[in-house]
Fold this protein.
Amino acid sequence: MMDRIEVDRQELQGNFCRGCGYCMPCPQGISINMCARASLLLRRAPSDIILSEDGQQMMKKIEDCTECGQCSEKCPYGLDVPDLLKKNYEDVKEVLAGKPI
Ligand code: SF4
Ligand code: SF4
């Protein structure tokens, strides 16, 4: 139990998206407030939100990110949003390829 709490503590410290949406809209139409916390949603909500056909289409939009940086400028938590999006996208692709969640 304490191990689980420690894992959660590490995951939820600092560098994670709160889903507030202050960084939006994205000129490329990326649903940042969902995509930047896909890894958390996968493990804490019904995973269909991310793994369904619609969810996968939503995540694929991350490929259109131009790294313009306007989302990071608006994020009140100072997140490197493009980097966070890429990490979440990689994680989702690995899960779809069979990585256990
Ligand atoms: S850096 Fe990427 S995700 Fe952020 S606003 Fe620009 S295109 Fe959208
Ligand atoms: S990236 Fe920042 S501003 Fe955008 S939804 Fe997440 S926490 Fe909010």
About this structure: The helical segments are 2-12, 32-35, 38-44, 48-51, 53-60, 70-74, 81-96. The radius of gyration is 14 Å.
